[in-house]
Specification:
- The chain is α+β, with helices and mostly antiparallel strands.
- It is 23% helix and 39% strand.
- The chain is built from one helix and four strands.
- A four-stranded antiparallel sheet has the order 1-2-4-3, with helices on one face.
- β1 and β2 form a beta hairpin.
- The chain is elongated, with a radius of gyration of 13 Å.
Length: 71
C-alpha cells in the first residue's frame, strides 16, 4: 500500500546505571503491528545484531509505530 509514510527518530540518553542508550522511534501510520514488525523492527534489529558494544535491544511494535531502546 502506498498510503503509508515511515518516519524515524532517535535520541541518545543514559540508562539508570549511566550506560549509553539510544532510543529509536518510528511512526508508520496505517500499518498493522505485523507490518511494522516486518518492515521496521526486523531489518533494524538484524542490522544491530553483533554491533560492537551492543548489550541488548528492548523493542515494541504496534499498529502504526515502533520504539526500541538500544543499550
Amino acid at each position: 500500500r502506498n498510503d503509508k509514510e515511515l518516519s524515524c527518530y532517535s535520541l541518545a540518553a543514559a540508562d539508570a546505571k549511566g550506560g549509553p542508550v539510544v532510543v529509536v522511534s518510528a511512526k508508520y501510520p496505517g500499518a498493522t503491528a505485523k507490518e511494522v514488525a516486518e518492515a521496521v523492527a526486523a531489518p533494524l534489529e538484524l542490522h544491530l545484531k553483533g554491533a560492537d558494544g551492543l548489550v541488548r535491544v528492548e523493542s515494541t511494535s504496534d499498529a502504526g509505530g515502533y520504539v526500541a531502546r538500544v543499550h
